[in-house]
Amino acid sequence: MNKSVYASPDQVSETKRHILTVLVDNEPGVLARVIGMFSGRGYNIDSLNVAEVSNDENISRITIVTHGTSEVVNQIEKQLLRIVPVHSVTNLDQEGSSVEAEVALIYIYISDTNKKKVYQLCDLYRARKIENENNTTIFEIAGASERVNRFIKEINEITKVEIVRSGPVAISSIQKN
Amino acid sequence: MNNEITGAEIVLKSLAEQGVEVVFGYPGGAVLPIYDTLFKQNSIKHVLVRQEGGAIHAAEGYARSTGKTGVVLVTSGPGATNVVTGLTDAMMDSVPIVCITGQVPQHLIGSDAFQECDTTGITRPCTKHNYLVKDVNKLSSVFHEAFTIAQNGRPGPVLIDIPKDVQFASGTYEEKNKIIIPSHRLFEPSPDFEKNKIEEAVELISKAKRPIFYIGGGCINSGPKASKLVREFINMVGSPVTMTLMGLGVVGSSDKNSLGMLGMHGMYEANMAMHECDVMINIGARFDDRVTGRLDAFSPNSKKIHIDIDESNINKTINVDVPIIGDVKQVVEKMISIWKDKKYKIDTDSLKLWWDKINKWKEVDCLNYNNKGKQIKPQYAVQRLYELTKNTKTFITTEVGQHQMWAAQFYKFEEPNRWLTSGGLGTMGYGFPAAIGAQVGHPDALVVDIAGDASILMNIQEMSTAVQYRLPVKIFILNNEYMGMVRQWQELLHGGRYSESYTDSLPDFVKLAESYKAVGLRAKTTDELDDVITQMIETKNTVIADIWVTKEENCFPMIQSGSAHNEMMLSKDQKQDKKSAEKGKILV
Predict the structure, then answer these.
(1) Structural domain tally of chain A?
(2) C-alpha dihedral over B251, B253, B255, B260, to 10 degrees?
(3) Residue that finishes a domain, picked among A92, A107, A140
(4) Do A29 and B289 touch (CB under 8 A)?
(5) Is B463 a catalytic residue?
(6) A82 and A102 share a domain?
């Protein structure tokens, strides 16, 4: 149900995280149309990712992480399909049926006291060192958002860091459940 | 190259190929090349309005009365921002519009140039689609796609923004049939469109004991054939039918099955029937909040069938049992053939009981009003207007407010496309320019804008347009010196504190008409009313008829916001219970 004051209080299902993957014509303004629909109708965007995925056909894929009840997310999908340059909208269920990954780049300030711990942790999470200068190292970590979250939490306990994250991209899994 | 023409010429050629006969617009710096080309040709007529807002409502009136696409041509900056209300109106009421806006030359875009604005940015949420055309060679394909998108599926407004340098540049024209529009950019029903669902729906209808058809504007957008089929199917079923504000005319008012309009100011019997039905067949309506009232008490015991061309309307506010995505005429045609093939027949005993119940509700006589004295009641004015125009081909437009609801309640529509009103957006100032557009499309018909004294002032400048083009539009003002609907809500919900809803210093509407070289008439008492209406109809000129009506008349029946269909207020004396009144106050 929408969140209008006319909305009925019953039948409100549980709010869940959903990953939507939207194929669009790669034309000017298409991203604005998509995000404008979200803000205009009061839906949430937790993260958003967009990149061209086919050179010849000029098609981009937008990955949107949102949260809402199944009614809201259902309505989001239909509203997205009304946008003229949108080809298709797929709701990748969060659990099981899709594979997701994101990238984070992390500036880590290293000192003699924390050096050992930092490298151990980075090894454990297979974070890759990209640059190293004086007391600062840039690591890259890729993988499921939860794994990145855990890594960030643990590294934060050791030392000061600065983070940039891409937000997840996802694709449907080969093994459907 | 020899076959190259200018961008401005491509614009005109595209319009001509699309069969456009008339453009409503207003010139300005960034569209001068197009106006220059317009000057050099004779196939497309241009109607010069007095403010761009008038142009787009006129195009809406033209589109809705003719079934064609309305075309608007305005300049950049303020020209474009002035059409935003009309674009939103057309978006809400699904009116096919192509709006052409000029833009500053490309090298100035982004420099805060004179009369520059981000037109495509501003209009993105209020158009079905919009374009900024940077390449003159793409201009014709953009135009052909724009017309297709405006008319396809659920119709709506499309805007094309053309920088001035593109209008001057030379390029090639491509014909309509050479343009291929990728299917994902259009609504295309699958070939066996929802066949199973339609069968399921028809079976459900055949088993109904208390069916009701709930008809919306989608039936009108689907074309005159849709209305014919809908009437035919309803007759076969023998079911009562109610229409939304936008659906009036799909089934004639005099049809024995018609219960009239439903919703906030709809008929008591229609709303009660919606509340108590066991099968609801929604054809081309969208469960708008003016119709449903309180959602948790909306038709609690019915199975609901919903036919809509726009999938996003399905389960948006009301969950339905059988959704069917498709065009009304195709779906209903299929329904009729299934009904015939399977020799379905509804249980006549139950249907008779249902009609008996409905006839009891009708006895409430919900539109009854106290019509005593010399003062003209607004309801009576509309009734007389109907009686005196019913044998003429008449188009009625309205502004927004009490007069709009009285027009919907008391004017009887027998055909689709004769009733033009701003339903979704509720745009005061819509009716008069829309009447101009309808008159342009139907030069010989009678076109009457039933207006309020406040609404008419929102686009009164179009008097000049009506007179310039000799358009004999009639403005029938129900003048109570109030913003009547605002006053009514203040009376019912805000303790009678009439904050800013009284209009002091209204113009003398008779003199106002005369100042534009139109005809002004006035009726102050019931004795004068018929004469004024007759004179208005017979005058071959633009007319303002200023009808002085009772000042504090309220529009009833009414479902107050936050109430349900079976909690209709029939008069002022019947108060809403306090709890739902408080809840309703925060609603619109």
Answers:
(1) 2
(2) 80
(3) A92
(4) no
(5) no
(6) no
Q: How many CB pairs under 8 A join A and B?
A: 59
| B337-360 confidence digits (pLDDT tens) | 999 999 999 999 999 999 999 999
Whole-number Å distance between alpha carbons of B306 and B328: 11
Distance CA A38, CA A19 (A): 14
Residues A114 and A69 in one domain: no
Whole-complex ipTM: 0.91
Note the residue count of chain B.
588
Q: Indicate yes or no: CB of B312 within 8 angstroms of CB of A75.
A: yes
CATH number of the domain encompassing residue A64: 3.30.70.260
Burial-class residue B299 by CB neighbours within 10 Å (0-12, 13-18, 19+): buried
User: Are A104 and A86 contained in the same domain?
Assistant: no
Q: Determine the structural domain holding residue A103 and report its residue range.
A: 98-172
B319·A78 Cβ contact <8 A: no
> DSSP class of residue B375?
B
Q: Is A73 on the interface with B (CB under 8 A)?
A: no
Decide if pLDDT at B63 tops 70: yes
- Does the beta carbon of B132 lie under 8 angstroms from any beta carbon of chain A? yes
Query: CA geometry: angle at B33 spanning B32 and B39, to 5°?
Result: 85
Which residues in chain A touch residue B586, judged by CB atoms under 8 angstroms apart? 5
Q: Which residues contact B434 (CB under 8 A, 6 or more apart)?
A: B57, B58, B60, B61, B64, B397, B420, B422, B449
In a shared domain, residues A39 and A58: yes
Give the tokens for residue B22: 């008339």
CA dist B445 and B435 (Å) reads 11
Is B52 one of the catalytic residues? yes
Compute CA distances B76 → B33, B103, B128, B465, whole Å.
Answer: 13, 5, 20, 21
Does the pLDDT value for residue B269 go beyond 80? Answer: yes
Q: Specify the pTM.
A: 0.94
Minimal C-alpha gap between A82 and chain B (Å) = 8
Kindly state whether A82 is in contact with chain B, defined as any CB-CB distance less than 8 angstroms: yes
Place of tokens 């050992």: A116
Indicate the length of chain A as a whole number: 177
Whether B485 is catalytic is yes
Which chain A residue is nearest to residue B133, measuring alpha carbons?
A28
CA-based nearest distance A51→chain B, Å: 20
For the segment A60-96, what is each residue's pLDDT rounded down to a tens digit?
Answer: 999 999 999 999 999 999 999 999 999 999 998 755 6
Nearest Cα to Cα of residue B207 among B232, B233, B239:
B239
Contacts of B296 in chain A (CB under 8 A): 8-10
| Residues A108-124: tens digit of each pLDDT | 999 989 999 999 999 99
Q: Domains of chain B (ranges plus CATH)?
A: 5-172 (3.40.50.970), 195-362 (3.40.50.1220), 378-548 (3.40.50.970)
